[in-house]
Structure formats: structure tokens, C-alpha cells
Design a protein that fits this description.
The structure is a homodimer of 321-residue chains. Chain A is α/β, with parallel strands linked by helices. Chain A is built from 13 helices and 11 strands. Chain A has 2 domains: 117 residues, Rossmann fold (3-Layer(aba) Sandwich); 177 residues, Rossmann fold, CATH 3.40.50. In chain A, helix 6 packs across helix 9 and helix 10 runs parallel beside helix 11. The model of chain A has no long low-confidence stretch (mean pLDDT 95). At the A-B interface, helix 6, helix 7, helix 9 and helix 13 of A face helix 6, helix 7, helix 9 and helix 13 of B. Chains A, B: Its EC number is 1.1.1.-.
């Protein structure tokens, strides 16, 4: 505790903290284990009595081990949409509430998904490289791309991101269907309960679901084969939803036509085989990252920490386990 | 004339001819000046009596000089949307009808415009390069992009391409206005008669108009300064609508934030200063180019040549001069 500011344990730290450190630090006193010379576990037990709230990013794992060292912890706010890095069962057992970034990134992520898809279909990054290398002048023609309009797109996960992707691709004349844990009564697009079936009837798959035990490696070779040789996959959700080994194999054997990937199984490591492929467009887990959404995130995190410390309702509390 | 097939003078030749040469050649007998050893003018006067129809691309200039050599010519079909390579006044004077590709590329061009815009705003090509060069692992963070939603977009030229761009960007939550020769009663977006004013109130300009004497170099330094330092320009129309010298200067002096360019003043030459800039995304005059649209174009050209030779109404006849 510094002055009258409430203590918040900072894990990571999230990139929004780096951008808004001054503003954050006017409102809360942050405990920063990485600035301490003592090991994390010891740091946590030293501060155990004073830590009621923690702020983390998707890259900090909040495991049973971490939670055991923080018996007074009652609230975790994460800067991410995904909560697969947090042991939600253990949090529930211990009475630790969790809040995520909710839907504040949905539009940015949906924009990035559409951008990656057009890039793969129309070969924009590869064409840009072609022009910048001076090859237009020497080589003349450039391979044709593929039309987006009329394509059958299967959206995997129809939360706020999936819905924003669907709205956008609908305006391009795509034919949308989706799969999700359950059919969503408010969604007008056709529901398909089975991922194999969705892949078989789609030319494009856009992965927008959460990473859970059920979705881990859900997009495997059998799904890719069902999608077929002209198929394109865009993943802006979590890397591990795709079996990356199968993905590399299918790309190298031209079992699918291309991919747009913002996320990877083992970030920041990217399968080496993908680095040379023109039909693979990759961004560094960046689909949420705009200046505007970072500002919105800063405001949301402050609002949630304020709400927690004053016993008010949280925004985007994660209730599923 | 070979057999009973009608003669068509082929200029260029258009890339659709190369892709569908066999199919085209079953329906028409094409005169190919570039396969002849004699100079073009002599080739033209040799065949002058038999040439009633010509088929060209945007890269073949049909000047008064060319037309003078073809007194029997009555029809030119171009594979392009733009007709700035054809002397329309001289055609009218000589009773030569002209047909272009009409709106068949509109969706593809609009898709490419949106793709280029998202690429520039969200730095997709540059991020892809970053990941592929292995820099994510070494450098960690990557600069933030900018949100598309809520951006004020000025569309220059509200023909079928402009309208398709507007429909798409509307679904992303952009605020659209447009300029055009005249206000379009069927368009719901606000009209702005003046390009300077449109630039001043926009954060993004998308150029979708034809190249004419009025639009040549219309997007010059004064327009770019009115657009401002955060401004982005996308050009999928014709290179010469932009003053490329001014554009290079404004980019180097950071008077505008970025550009997405599919077209250039002097194709395939691209200003050398642009090759190294990450905020410049370039494609090789490729916005119309998908396999699907090439097929549609083939069918349209055949339909128009058939219509001409059987005195039936043309599709997409160009009536303005």
C-alpha cells in the first residue's frame, strides 16, 4: 500500500499497463514481482496478506500454484478476451472473481479477421512484396486471386467477435453459417452443430471461439481435409484451437489453399515451415491492437478495479468455468 | 477472315485473351499485330478494309493515329473499366462504338480497396514481414494499428465501385461521404461537391473515379494537406488521378499517414521512394484480378462481340465522351 491507493498485483505486465503506466499508477499501487530480486513464489507469499486483486495478460498463467500463494485474492482482471491462462475452476473454488476484456476488442478483431482473409484470397501481402522487390517491372503478370463474394464461410464460435465477422462478411456477399456450443436464437445465420459438417460445406473457416478443453486442437487434419484444397482458414482466436502440426502438413501438401493467422500454439514461436509460404499471412497476435482499443481497455480495467474495491458490479465478469 | 469467323483486331493483348485464347479463337479470328514482322501502322493499313471490331486492354492506347488507319472500324471492346486509353471524341466523330467491362469488376475492386485499407490501418503486410523475418521472437512488441470503425471515409467517384466500397465500409461502422460529378439521388450517403472540403472532413480517401481531364492530378498536395497527418489514401482507380510526385513528398514528410495503391502513373514503374515504406502497401494493378472475374470478363467480351456482329444491343456501351 502506498498512500491510500489500493494494492494490485501485476502479472506480466499487460501491454496496456506499459502504455498507461502513469495513469494506472495514479489510481492503484501495483506490486511488480518482475522488479523484485526474489523468486515469484516467495514474492507472492511475502505480499499474500495484502493482495486482494490482480491484473494480468494472456501471457501470465494463473495456475493453482499461483492461487495457493494468494489466499486473500478475490479478483483477477485480465487484459485479454480469452481466459484460458487462468484456472477458472480453482478461482471458483476459492471465491476469486474473474473479469476479462469482454467485447471491447470485437470490432478490431473482426476487422483484422476480414483483413487477413482478403489478404490471403487476394494475395495482398505477397503482391506488395512482389512490387516492392521490383518484380512487376521484370516479370509482368502476377497470379490471380480469388473472389470473396459468394464464398461459403463457416464461423466457429458465434460470440461478439464471430457476430462482428459475420456482419462484415455478409456485406461482401459471403454466405455465412456457424457452429457454436449452442444455437444462438438471436443469430439469423444457419447453425451447424458439427465442425466436420461445417468444414465440408464451407470454403472458408474463421475461428472465433474460446480455447477450452473442448476446442483445443479441434481444427485438425480431418477438419482441414473436409474443408478441402481450395479452403482457407483464418484464426484470430487462440493458436491451440488449431493442431499446428496438422496445419503445416496440410499447407505443405496443398490440402488447403491458404491461411491467415494472428495466433499460434507457442507464441512468439511460429512454425518455420510457414515462413516461406506466400499463401500464409501472419500477424503477431495483434488483432486486438489498435490505439483506440488500448484506450478503451485502460478505461475498462480501471473501471473494474474501482468496482471491485468499492463492491460494485463488475463489467464482463466471466461466469462460465 | 479464317473460315466463317468474323475478324477482330487484337491490341495488347488483354490478359483475359491469354487466359481464354482457345475459347476466344473458336468464335472469332483475331488479327495479332505483335506476331507480325511489319510495323503496327503498316499492319493496320494492310488489314484496314477487314477490321470492323477491335479488342484491347487498358495498356493499348487507341489514339487518333490508330483510328485513322482503321476507316472501317465500328466497335472497340476494352477489357478494362477505365476508357482513358481510348480517344472517345475521335471514336464518336468516326461512329465507333465503345464498350468497357462495366460493373463486372466492381465487387472485386471494392474488396481489394477494403483489403488495402485494412492492411494500411492495421499494418498487416508489414506485420507479416515482421513475423516472417523472425523479429517477433527477437523484438517482442509490434506497433499498434488504427481502428477502422468510426473513421470518416470520403469516397471519390460514386459509380458501381464507389457504391460497393461504401456498402462494405458501412458494415465496418465507417462514416461515409462522397464526391462525384453530380449528386446521386439513389445514394443515401452525404454528397460533398468539393474535393478539398471532402478531404478536410475525412480521415480516409478512397479513389474510385474515372481518369478524365477533370480528374487528372486531382489528388494533389493541397488535397493531401487538407486530409492531414493521420490521413490514408487508397487508390484502386487510375494512377494519374493522384499527383504521384506530391504523394511521394507528402509520405516522406509525413504529411499523410499511409497509402494503399493498386495503380500508378507510369505502370509498371513505381516511385522508388515508396519501396522501403512500411506505411505504403502496393499491388500490381491487380484489384480486378480474380479467376471468377476473368471468367465473367471473357463471357462479357464474347457477348459484346457477338452483339456487335449481329447488330444487337451492347452491354456497358460507353456513351460519355
Amino acid at each position: 500500500m502506498a498512500g491510500d491507493l489500493p494494492n494490485v498485483l501485476l502479472l506480466g505486465p499487460p501491454s496496456v499497463f506499459k502504455s498507461y503506466e502513469r495513469e494506472f499508477s495514479e489510481k492503484f499501487y501495483f506490486l511488480k514481482p518482475w522488479e523484485s530480486s526474489i523468486p515469484l513464489r516467495q514474492f507472492l507469499s511475502t505480499h499474500a496478506g495484502s493482495v486482494k486483486a490482480a491484473f494480468c495478460s494472456a501471457s501470465s498463467r494463473v495456475t493453482t500454484g499461483v492461487l495457493q500463494n494468494l489466499p486473500e485474492l478475490r479478483f483477477i482482471v485480465t487484459s485479454s478476451v480469452g481466459v484460458d491462462h487462468i484456472d477458472l475452476h480453482e478461482c471458483k473454488r476459492r471465491g476469486v472473481k474473474v473479469a476479462n476484456a469482454g467485447s471491447i476488442f470485437s470490432e478490431d478483431v473482426a476487422d483484422a479477421a476480414v483483413g487477413l482473409l482478403i489478404d490471403v484470397l487476394r494475395r495482398i501481402s505477397a503482391a506488395n512484396r512482389f512490387v516492392k522487390a521490383g518484380l512487376w517491372h521484370e516479370n509482368g503478370g502476377y497470379p490471380l486471386g480469388h473472389k470473396l463474394g459468394g464464398k461459403r464461410v463457416g464461423i466457429i464460435g458465434m460470440g461478439s467477435i464471430g457476430l462482428d465477422v459475420a456482419k462484415r462478411l455478409n456485406a461482401f456477399g459471403c454466405i455465412i453459417s456457424y457452429t457454436s456450443r449452442n444455437e444462438k436464437p438471436h443469430v439469423k445465420f444457419p447453425f451447424c452443430p458439427n465442425i466436420q459438417e461445417l468444414a465440408a460445406k464451407s470454403e472458408i473457416l474463421v475461428i472465433c471461439c474460446a480455447l477450452t478443453d473442448q476446442t483445443r486442437h479441434m481444427i485438425d487434419k480431418s477438419v482441414m481435409l473436409a474443408l478441402g484444397r481450395d479452403g482457407i482458414i483464418v484464426n484470430i482466436a487462440r493458436g491451440a484451437i488449431v493442431n499446428e502440426k496438422d496445419l503445416v502438413e496440410c499447407l505443405l501438401q496443398q490440402e488447403i489453399a491458404g491461411v491467415g493467422l494472428d495466433v499460434f500454439e507457442n507464441e512468439p514461436n511460429v512454425p518455420e515451415e510457414l515462413l516461406e509460404l506466400d499463401n500464409v499471412v501472419m500477424t503477431p497476435h495483434h488483432a486486438v491492437m489498435t490505439e483506440q482499443s488500448l484506450r478503451d481497455l485502460y478505461e475498462l480495467v480501471v473501471r473494474n478495479l474501482d468496482a471491485f474495491f468499492s463492491n460494485k458490479p463488475l463489467m464482463f465478469e466471466v461466469t462460465r468455468v
